[in-house]
Amino acid sequence: MSRNDEGREISLDSKVKNLINNLETRSQVLELINSVPRLRIILLLIIHGKLSLTKLSNLLGRTKSTASHHLKKLDQLEILKTSTKDSRGSIDAKVFELIEEFNPFGTLNMEDVELLRDDLKSKILDLSLENNIKLLKVLKLLYDQIEQYYEALESEKPNKARESLRKVKKDYLNSPFKYNIWFLSDEGLSEYNKLFNDFKTKLESLVQNEFQKDKKVLKPNLIVHNLIPIKEIIKYDPETEHFMEFFKALEE
Which residues lie closer than 8 Å to 123 by C-beta, 6 or more apart? Predict the structure, then answer.
């Protein structure tokens, strides 16, 4: 084996270890935040950056002991960073924030998977599938929260109807939840991928610039981008549980 081949193998081995470690850690985090209070804590820390226990519990609408209980769970996975402030020894001496590299919703670089031995490739793909399932559960929890938000608005409609038309229009017609839905052919998907790659590069630059410019700025807007291969998804019938037909369809 040449030195170049040895160097490449060592480099690939290091990437594999990092990838497996990231997948395992991410799986643990996603499993832990598949809980309404802990997901809300994560989102509040993403929005506000740093929060004391009092501010966090107030925003969460829970007692300090409840918030502290969930914070300890998150801290066990080493995704929290704590600092102290001068508060005369009170419980608010600690300020909580997420570690800078924390992003359970981000994608992982798996470009080298095809170069691996079959056993390692299988392990990584299994971990990736496990991550995707847990991520979908967390996103479902988030969409459930959106649904409950709109149901709460619906229940308040009779009271709001007494207010001015402008107020009613602002609350109910100018929805804060924005989305677009498109259906594309395979050819259209190819063009879409080119457009999205350009958009993704610009958006990542925007996110990085915001982070470097001011870490204290609020980040109350979440963008979730989904591409759903519906042709394959609907080949699986959940009522009859035809798993074999589903996986056979994926191999075609």
Answer: 20
Whether 165 is covered by a domain: the verdict is no
CA distance 228 to 233: 8
- Residue 168 domain flag: no
Q: Can you say whether residue 78 is alpha, beta or left, with left for phi > 0 and alpha for psi between -120 and 50 degrees?
A: left
What is the domain range of residue 224? Answer: 178-252
Domain annotation covers residue 172: no
Sign for the CA dihedral angle at 28, 30, 36, 37 comes to: positive
Q: Are 127 and 20 in contact (CB under 8 A)?
A: yes
CATH number of the domain where residue 107 is located:
1.10.10.10
One domain for residues 41 and 129: yes
What is the 3 state secondary structure string of 153-168?
HHHHHHHHCCCCHHHH
Nearby residues of 62 by Cβ (< 8 Å), 6 or more positions away: 37
The 10s digit of each residue's pLDDT in 45-101 is: 988 989 999 999 999 999 999 999 999 999 998 899 988 876 555 555 789 999 887
DSSP, collapsed to helix, strand or coil, labels residue 56 as helix
- 162, part of any domain: no
Q: Which of 143, 163, 187 marks a domain boundary?
A: 143
Number of domains in the chain: 2
pTM: predicted TM-score of the whole model, two decimal places? 0.75
Whether 12 and 129 map to the same domain: the answer is yes
- Write out pLDDT tens, residues 4-42: 554 445 455 777 788 888 888 889 999 999 999 999 999
Which amino acid is located at 79 in the chain? I
45's CB contacts (< 8 A; 6+ apart) are 51, 56, 96, 97, 98
